[in-house]
Specification:
The structure holds two protein chains of two kinds. Chain A contains two helices and nine strands, in the order βββββαβαβββ. By secondary structure, chain A is of the alpha+beta class. Chain B is mainly α. Classes of the chains: A alpha+beta, B mainly alpha.
């Protein structure tokens, strides 16, 4: 369990999907974030992450809230992954950004945790979608998406 | 700024998000890529 993370609003599941929310509290006030683990096929899930607009009830996965709490948001997203793997230990979670900025966000997330959690999780970076090519995530890598799964030693 | 204040509102919002997901209206572009990756991993 990481210490400096935001609390989630419950952890509800719908069919095979999991949805959770948290509030980012920063220099621009409160920004509600949504994280979803959407079932794709077999043990494969897509991680979706974006800002939730309470007025329009829409999700913007390209929003730049710039709330000054990136480190805590990264830690919270990571915490959601750990919680998800506790429920679905055989899952493969796919993560890709909606643009280069978001991909860098996820790359940063993975680099932050890859070293400390390399004995628990496998972190792979997708270098090409079709045909699919991927490698173990490394520094200075250039990735279009990521695959995270739990190691069994 | 508002936040989701009560439990029933939270559940309602989560259900709405899950419904959007199930209709393929949420993170559609990413989900399409996820399907592309998943289908190739299965081979």
């Amino acid at each position: 369990m990481l210490k400096n993370t935001y609390s989630f609003y419950g952890k509800e599941s719908f069919n095979k999907d999991y949805v959770l929310f948290f509030d980012s509290l920063g220099k621009n006030g409160i920004v509600t974030k949504v994280i979803s683990f959407q079932y794709i096929d077999y043990n494969f899930y897509n991680l979706g992450f974006g800002d939730y607009n309470l007025e329009t009830q829409t999700i913007d996965d390209k929003a730049k809230s710039d709330n000054g709490d990136m480190k805590k948001v990264l830690a919270t997203v990571w915490q959601s992954l750990e919680d998800f793997f506790a429920i679905q230990p055989n899952a493969i979670v796919f993560i890709t950004g909606s643009d280069d900025v978001r991909n860098r966000f996820y790359y940063r997330l993975i680099l932050n945790y890859a070293e400390n959690f390399a004995n628990i999780y496998k972190f792979e970076g997708v270098t090409n979608f079709e045909p699919l090519e991927f490698e173990i995530v490394r520094q200075e890598g250039k990735y279009q998406g990521f695959l995270i799964s739990k190691l069994y030693l | 700024m508002k936040t989701i204040e009560n439990k029933s509102e939270q559940i309602k919002t989560q259900a709405k998000v899950a419904e959007l997901q199930s209709k393929g209206q949420l993170f559609a572009e990413k989900v399409a890529k996820a399907h592309l990756v998943a289908s190739q991993l299965k081979k």
